[in-house]
Specification:
The structure is a homotetramer. Chain A is α/β, with parallel strands linked by helices. Helix content of chain A is 34%, strand content 18%. Chain A is built from eleven helices and 15 strands. At the C-D interface, helix 2 and helix 7 of C face helix 2 and helix 7 of D.
């Protein structure tokens, strides 16, 4: 931590800062510059110190130099983390494809979709039973019956299942059915929920909040990891910007950034990331070209009849085309699609 | 709802859209323009229709013309809502001041602050027992003992209490102690939590999410109102923008906007809205000049020792100065500060 | 400037950084922390150094501690700057009101508006002769004939004139007619133009760019000041955010920020800042409550017939109401409206 | 254009809107909905009408349904535009690579870089002679001598040259030396400059402004096209968002969006788009996977000695690696790198 003094701050003010640092059991290194004095703080810094030093007389700015996240940081954990689900390894050389409807609507819809995406090469089945909805008047998912359908179709088709959990009181329920617990963007800073999914020990996928910085996202990840659960992956799904053409702006650059600063696998969701089905294929290809460990896409038998997010869902034919192009791009960057034919324990 | 067809879309495509609209029991009004055809949809529109029509061949865009929020809308509820707390009316001619420490730290800190802010004219005591924290390693509040301190100090000093509730499982607990339940920015779209606080029937203050549009905020309010709880007020606390000088950018314009589009009272929180104590006074004055029904500010006996958000807390002297200037500005816009000397039932 | 080394960087990497710093004629202060090594750079730092050090092996981050702006900074120029125009002082105790039509359309429109705003207490007449327009198909101003009308009406009504200059090739022309040269938001980083208006020695008002940080804005101001022209004021006119209800989000907090970090006067433009006439009055009041030295508002005899930006223009009656409320708020914060009855040299 | 009336607006208000529409020589289609009345405007709408109608009594909102851009729109110009430079076609099946130093610093630096990038397969040489700089104290380019070096190196190495023009007064000068005139992000709405480069008839590359929406960008393109110059391409170079890890957030999704809504070629600049050299390769690959017609990257013999933007420049070795991976990704999406060995007329 570095304390930057104001231009013209005097000996008394510098002494005040030094005294406060030392009274916290830390060391102060004073360095007199041409314009200003800088005071380095050395020792085991506690988080509240920053705000405290900022308030002292003569202080212009306090700059933190260590990263506030540790467990999710590559500096402290250089080797890649991999997440294991139903015989598949996420975060290695293979690229996983999670596909399925936005919301589970009926047995037929789910079963038909699961069969189609598996036939086209998907590795994991996605489908929402509890759906966050901006408006209380919109479809909010089937709830537990939706979970039961997921479990049933998983068995019939042989694909592990990822589904969202929205509330800490539902973690136990959802964890009984799901192979991967998904935390949605709106819940990225629902800290109780993060701790609850951490405690399950089950694989977790943490979506980035709509306006979360990389640092905030990794601190949210830290809540899960701090519970001893390292089966964690991140998922970019678009951020909020001034652009209105798309629902969100998908931040592809965060993929190589996460790879650099963290050891956690990174997935990309171009369906939510763009909100428009005709952008899903190019953005899925871009994500894999940029280094993503997998993609998550919405597929629906009849997008124009979908109860949720039809405009961003692929048809079976579109999904088939995506998989064929994705295979080529994956190979162009030295990777390959995960083999979906591995057995899933029911 | 209006369907805008692509330039050059033909009779067949128009007929397809009309057919879909009619099959949903609605009427279609086709209007041929110079460049494009527009199709108006008349009838009881259901929310999923928008996405469905967007997918049809020849459609360029679907535009919603009715507002998705109803209960919070001034169009459907022209008269101002007022919230009643401990003999005070929020949303009328009087301006309320909610003041206190960011986090409850100790009996002494809370009691001393409560006495100081009451003496200076505050109407409501704020203080966090459960604190959201970006990092799992920071101070996260005293929990229930913090609530007990709030209740005790409320009795001793005679100020109603507002405090945050972060999880649906804690609503009952917090509601036992608090006069107003606060929903924080990070939980603005925690829909389960919104419904739970709605069910209590207690006054609720809903903070705007960091990247929430006016429409999303009012839809979140709709979740509370839909439970039959009309004792609801909104609170602007800064939005996320590209500017890094401040922690957030406080959106003063949303105050007159809310007044125009909604009947709910609107409070401003310049402490979180700016993150810097020296901006709190000018921004509090600006908020009241722009029409805010109240302000919420953080006050601490020793901001440089605060366990949370010291850099944005006012000292007692600063708060005293704020109240004096606020009085003048309130009167300049034809309002007055609420009288804090009303008895609070313990 | 501070160089933060990566966790685990070794002696060789530290020596490399020290060597580079010393080879640039500067001193390096190495400080070994618990986690990382930090190297302070002391001496006359040149701007390219930051990028150069960032590239060296073992470097995690380079942090600049001195502000890149000097001439516009309050640290180096503690006393307030005032701008003098036609007997009026901007940046002192008095608050100036610049009012008039967005675009000059005709002699009658301009004359009628000038008389009305002067009668209501405006101090300066605004009106665009050269208008930036997002679309090439929209009205782009009368050009030189517009300037002539401004000069003529200035003489008849007795108000100094502010008008925009959009291109360095037109600076001389516009400077012949205008009392204050306005640089629009889209040109905030048109560096040639900034230098040209700097050279005229005339008062300049520099609007903030739509996505300009405080630092970038002050660096743009630096281009004008570096030409020896200190008759400079800044103008907040809304920034671009995710919110779509308003055209821009007016950043009221930047008013006290500029007052803190700079000595230049700060004006607020709620017409462009919001894009909606019914938000202009509350936002003008808020700006003055927050410490603005003046406001700029659009007024039109018939906003519903305006060729440009009618939706954000006040009628004469609205403007009259604004002035009356503004007077009260100005006095509430210890200031007063500038007296407009001072003679203007024609 | 559609006028949405307020809930509860009456016959008199509707009649007022209809009258105004008809008095402008247009037709009004009134459509009575369940909640509100909607009035469609049919005929040759002029741009000022929107603001005028918004002001009328009873009007809630005016919605434009035709796109304001025409010449750049794919709806009105379905076939792809291609730009021809020195025997190369941009916007067809081949992908062009523009590479070179951020700023021209010396003959040796430019010549060495040009030879290295040509050897690695670049098709066009980039290099700035006039450099926009946020601060007046930073390096701002060599000016005309820089242009002369570009011309000389072009001859010696045989690569066409792209360079930025910053001011309308320098268009003629720069056009004498450059094969492609680049308009930088800060000048995207410098309308005089856009018209001047339009008039030259030379190929133009228009970068997206830091906070420009797709629509504003295409309207800026319209300024060039309206001069009869169709040799125009667009370039994404990162937008401003809340994220601070990168200098900008590169919007890869705008690549397929431009392809959908416009016929103009689209180039991606991952050097400015990210500001960090280690993100350039993954983002260049992502851009091509998403459909970009070319990329522009900064290459420097010694990035750690660069006078400008060293931190985002590739070394020769990095560039070589990029070209090899780019070739694979281009082929994976059915395209190929442009052949650089074509002769350039000097």
């Amino acid at each position: 931590m570095i304390v930057v003094m104001k231009v013209g701050s005097g000996d008394k003010e510098i002494a005040g800062v030094v005294k406060r640092i030392e009274s916290a059991g830390l060391k102060a290194h004073v360095s007199q510059g041409v314009e200003r004095t800088i005071i380095g703080v050395v020792g085991q810094i506690f988080p509240e110190l920053e705000g405290m030093l900022e308030m002292l007389s003569g202080v212009d700015e306090v700059i933190r130099v260590s990263k506030p996240y540790k467990l999710s940081s590559r500096e402290f954990h250089p080797l890649d983390t991999t997440v294991k689900v139903g015989g598949i390894t996420i975060g290695g050389k293979e690229i996983v494809v999670m596909a399925g409807p936005c919301a589970v609507e009926s047995e037929q819809q789910l079963l038909e979709t699961a069969r189609a995406v598996k036939a086209a090469g998907a590795t994991i089945l996605r489908g929402g039973a509890f759906k966050p909805s901006t408006s209380p008047y919109h479809f909010r998912g089937l709830g537990e019956p939706g979970l039961e359908l997921l479990a049933q179709v998983k068995k019939e088709v042989g694909l592990p299942v990822i589904t969202e959990v929205m509330s800490s009181s539902e973690v136990e329920l959802v964890a009984r059915y799901a192979d991967i617990l998904q935390i949605g963007a709106r819940n990225m800073q629902n800290f109780n929920l993060l701790e609850e999914v951490g405690k399950t020990g089950k694989p977790v996928m943490l979506k980035r909040g709509l306006s979360a910085t990389v640092q905030e996202w990794l601190l949210a990840a830290e809540y899960v990891l701090a519970q001893g659960n390292e089966q964690l992956m991140l998922c970019e799904r678009g951020i909020r910007t001034f652009e209105t053409y798309t629902r969100n702006t998908m931040d592809i650059s965060v993929i190589p950034i996460i790879e650099k600063v963290s050891h956690l696998p990174i997935i990309a969701d171009p369906s939510h990331g763009t909100g428009k089905w005709y952008l899903v294929i190019p953005m899925a290809l871009a994500a894999v070209a940029a280094g993503a460990d997998g993609i998550m896409v919405e597929v629906h038998p009849n997008p124009d009849l979908a109860l949720k997010d039809g405009a961003q869902s692929l048809t079976f034919a579109n999904f088939h085309q995506l998989m064929s192009q994705l295979k080529s791009v994956a190979e162009a960057v030295g990777r390959r699609l995960a083999n979906p034919s591995i057995k899933v324990k029911s």
